[in-house]
Design goal:
This protein is mainly alpha-helical. Helices cover 63% and strands 0% of the residues. It has five helices and no strands. The protein has helices at 25-49, 52-57, 66-71, 74-107, 120-131. Helix 1 (25-49) runs antiparallel to helix 4. The longest helix has 34 residues, at 74-107. Keywords: Membrane, Transmembrane, Transmembrane helix. This is MFS transporter. Residues 1-31 are annotated as: Disordered.
């Protein structure tokens, strides 16, 4: 099979197990929130800390790669690394208490085993008792 052909539906996702066709709603719904908070913090910090001459040497501040950062002067590198660090810290400071609250709530949830059969006769008998 060459690169232009598509894989059969049964094997299409076997190449990328970390990117399934459907993901849980909790995973996909929190990523934009955390990412947008980080991105807005980072944009503000870079605009505040980056001198004009250093900003001119960086073509696009939204697409930093390790190679690009390593190719910049040390002063600009430290500004970028510090801004990333300072932009990510508030995200973790908000997520840690949220995770602690989630753990406390989960402690009080009792596990209930899944039903292994459907007992309609028992349910019908209960309804008859309740109706009488």
């Amino acid at each position: 099979m060459n690169e232009t052909e598509t894989a059969p539906a049964a094997t299409r996702w076997s190449k990328y197990p970390r990117d399934p066709p459907a993901q849980p709603a909790t995973k996909t719904s929190r990523q934009p929130v955390v990412g947008s908070v980080f991105a807005s913090n980072l944009a503000g910090l870079l605009a505040e800390r980056m001198p004009a001459e250093a900003a001119a040497s960086v073509a696009d501040t939204s697409s930093f790669t390790p190679e690009l950062v390593h190719s910049l002067p040390d002063a600009v590198q430290s500004i970028i690394v510090g801004a990333h660090n300072d932009a990510l810290t508030p995200v973790y400071l908000w997520l840690a208490p949220l995770a602690a609250v989630a753990v406390v709530v989960l402690v009080f949830i009792r596990p209930k085993p899944l039903a292994t059969s459907i007992d309609r006769a028992v349910k019908d008998a209960r309804k008859l008792k309740e109706a009488a």
